[in-house]
Amino acid sequence: MSDGATVEAKPFLRFNSTLPRVDLSAPRPRALTPFDDFSFRGNDPAVWSDQNYLDDSEQSVIGIMIRMRGEWDAEWLTPEHFLDERLGIVLQAIRNVKKSGGQVDMASVFRDVFARRYSDDVNVMWLRDLMQNTGTSVGFEYHLDMVANAHNIREVFRLSQRIAGSAKRAKGWRELFGDVRTELANLEARAELSNDSDMSDGGKQLDVMLKELNEAQSGVKPSALSTGWKSLDGLMAGGFRAGHLIVAAGRPGMGKSSFGTLLAATAASRGCHVAMYPFEETNEDVIHRVQSAHSGLPLTWFKKPDTNPDRSRRAMETASETTEWLKNLRLPDDPEAMTATQLSASAMRIHAARKVDLVVVDYLQRMIPENHRAQRHEQVEQAAMALKTLAKRLKCPVLAMAQVGRKCEERTDKRPMLSDLRESGGIEAEANVVLGLYRHGYYYPDDPQGQNEVEVITLKNRFGATGTVNLRWDGATTSLWDDLGGRNGRP
Hints:
Layout: H1 55-67, H2 85-99, H3 106-115, H4 124-132, H5 140-169, H6 173-193, H7 202-218, H8 230-235, E1 245-250, H9 256-269, E2 274-278, H10 283-295, H11 299-303, H12 309-322, E3 329-330, H13 340-353, E4 358-362, H14 376-394, E5 398-403, H15 426-430, E6 433-438, H16 440-443, E7 453-461, E8 468-474, E9 479-481
Parallel strand pairs: 1-5, 1-6, 2-3, 2-4, 4-5
Antiparallel strand pairs: 6-7, 7-8, 8-9
Helix pairs in contact: 1-2, 1-5, 2-3, 5-6, 6-13, 9-10, 10-12, 13-14
C-alpha cells in the first residue's frame, strides 16, 4: 500500500449455493495428484466435499499462474469456478496486478490481497504452501479442464434445484418448459466458454477449406447457399456463407418480409432445411406469401378466395406442387416473439433432429430483450451478438431482417445507409453482410422510373464486393425476381 491509504475491502461475491461452504480456517487436506482417483465419493450432492471437486487441480491452476508471472490464463475463468474461496481471491489479485501493469509474483499478489483486506484468510504462509504444493507447468490445460468440469457439474446441480422449486410454483406446464429451456440454454452457453475441445489448429482448418473447394468445384456441394437471385449471388460470391450473419435492413414497405420469406422458400425447395421465425407475421401469412409467389395469384386472393374456377384450380395445383418441399421449412408452433436465448435453443433443437442450413428471423428488433433494464441499443446489440453466435454454432447463414430509423426519409436520397440502422451500431459491427432494401416507387408513385423494382444495396460485405442489384417487384404477389433467372418462389 502506498501513502498509507486505506482501501475499502470489496466483498467476495459467490453464487448462492446449497452446497456446503468451505471453512477457510480448517486445515487443508493432502493435495491430490493427477494419478489419484478423481471419482466422486457417493451420489448424494449434499455430502460432496471440496476434495471431491479436485482440490489439487484448483490449487495447481492458481499456482502455475503465479509461477508463469500471469502469462498463462484463461479469460473464462472466474472466482466462482473455485470451490475454495481463497483461490478465487488470489485469482482476482493476479488479474488486478496484471491490469495495473505490475509483475505477477507472490509478493505482488499478497500486496493486492492485503489491500483488499483478505490477508486473514489468504496469508503469506498459506500462499507459500500453495506454491510449494504446485508442481511444474505441465498439465495446466488438464487442470483447467478439471476445474471447469467440476464447476459445470455444480451448476447443473444448482439448476436442478431451481427447476424443482419452479415446478412447485408453476401454474402451467408450458410456462415451466419455457423457463427450463431458457435456463438450460443459458447454462450451456456459459459452459461452452470453458470448453476448449472445439478448438482446432490452422492446419485442420486448411484441410476443411481444401475439401470444401474440391466439393464446390466438382459440384458435389456448393460453397455457399444460393439466394435464388443470380445477380445477388454474383455480388455475394455465390450466396450466403456458413457461419455468417446477414442483415437485410429497410423501412416498412420496402419488401423485407417478402425478401426473407421468398429466400427461405427457395432454399427449402432446393432441399435445404430452413428454420424461420416470422415475428412480424403469422405462420399462415408466410404460407400465403409462398403460395402467391409460386402460383402467380394475388396475395389478397389467398386472404379472401373467390369462386373463380381457374384461380381455384391453380391454387390447388400449387399446393400439390409445394407440399413436399415445404416440409423443409420449419415454422414455430407459437410464432410470438422470443428472446435470443429462446430462439437459439429452438434452432439448436431443430438442428439436433436434422441439420439446419439456414435460419431466417423477421425481424431483429421484434425479439424480446434478455435484459429489460438495459438501454434499447444495448438490447438490440445483444440480440445481434446472439444471432452471430448461433450462425457460428450451427455453421449456417443466419438472415435477420432489421428496421432502419426515420432519418433516411428526411433526406432527398431515401436509400438506407449503415448509420440508419435503428437503435444500434452493434448490428453493423456483428453482421458479416448488411443489405439495404429500397423501393423508389413507394416514395415516388408518380415517377415512371423504378416503379416495379426493389434495389438491394450492399452496405457492408466483409468478404466480398459492394454494389447494387435491381430486382423486379410484383406488388400483387409480393414476389421478387431478376433478369438473370426465374421468379424467386417458383423452383
